[in-house]
Amino acid sequence: MRLVFAGTPEFAVPSLEAALSSGFDVPAVYTQPDRPAGRGRQLTASPVKQRALRAGIEVRQPTSLRDPEAQQALRELQPDLLVVIAYGLILPQAVLEIPPNGGWNLHASLLPRWRGAAPIQRAIEAGDRETGVCLMQMEAGLDTGPVLLSQRTPILEDDTAGTLHDRLAKLSAEVLADGLKLLRAGIRPQAQPQPEEGVEYARKLDKAEARLDWTSSAIELARKVRAFSPWPVAELDLAGERLRVHAAKAMDAVPGSAEPGTVIAAGRDGIDVVCADGVLRLLQVQKPGGRPVSAGDYLNARPELRRA
Q: Which of 83, 103, 164, 239 has its CA 20 to 30 A from that of 89?
């Protein structure tokens, strides 16, 4: 059987590895065109392209799959299945109808919760206790297709978007491997329609969301710090200085009558700052133009902030 893979970022690489190890023939990999990256803004191949080239697989990078010529080029590959994960291009119905088994999409949430672009970050931001991966049969709607297979994983108290991203990337590969094993055995995974209740949309992250203020609750701020790590990284004002906050946690401390933004304790363990309804302890911060440092190291440069 022939499988065409479509994906772009690092998140999709473990699933590409699973596809290459599945026993399917992979005649081509589709990925986004090379983009400028880094300080030099040099054109850079996507992680999926880099892995495919190392495997000797043909790489295709159309700017759109709405074009009849691009669709014909895919048709000529005679794929039995199209596997899509974080590809970044809309696939029209005409493309999904090319393979006899249609398209499979891997999505990093427990559908129908967190359909859309940023399911990992929104799950952490909302305080969800668990998330997972769904393998769905693709259709025209946004992440609306019936679910073929799924796996769950808890969201740990110290999970950031980065750590959860890596765990879900590996889980996606496991789910895909299970699905492909069934298909090779002549068994099509049973499709379960998504329930109509519980739909939430994970809107794309906006860098402006990272600019936080102390009038939010400590729990809300701590969740956002975790959700926005490693990008776009939360920002807060502290004693007249704008800081990027890489790690923080909500404390049980009672702030008393101090105004939001007031430092009530600062030492080696962190910097405790009053919020709307509690205290947020800053653990790792970054000054403009600097590098991330522990709160204790930051206080070495700002000793006037130290509090018992």
A: 164
CA separation for the pair 84, 168 (Å, rounded): 15
Query: For residues 12 and 48, is the Cβ–Cβ distance under 8 A?
Result: yes
Sign of the CA dihedral running 244, 247, 250, 254: negative
Residue 48 main-chain phi, psi, to 5 deg: -65, -40
- pTM for the structure as a whole: 0.95
Q: Which CATH class is domain 3-202?
A: alpha beta
Nearest residue to 28 via CA among 5, 1, 55, 49: 5
Which pairs with CB-CB distance under 8 Å and at least 24 residues apart come from 230-235?
230/160, 230/161, 230/162, 231/161, 231/205, 232/205, 232/207, 233/286, 234/210, 235/210, 235/211
Q: Where are the domains of the chain?
A: 3-202, 207-305
Distance CA 228, CA 247 (A): 10
- Pick from 274, 212, 208: which is nearest to 237 by CA? 212
Strand ranges inside the chain, DSSP E: 3-7, 28-30, 35-37, 42-44, 58-60, 81-85, 103-107, 115-116, 130-137, 147-154, 201-202, 234-238, 241-251, 263-267, 270-274, 279-286, 293-294
The CATH homologous superfamily for domain 207-305 is Formyl transferase, C-terminal domain (3.10.25.10)
Strand pairing class (279-286; 293-294):
antiparallel
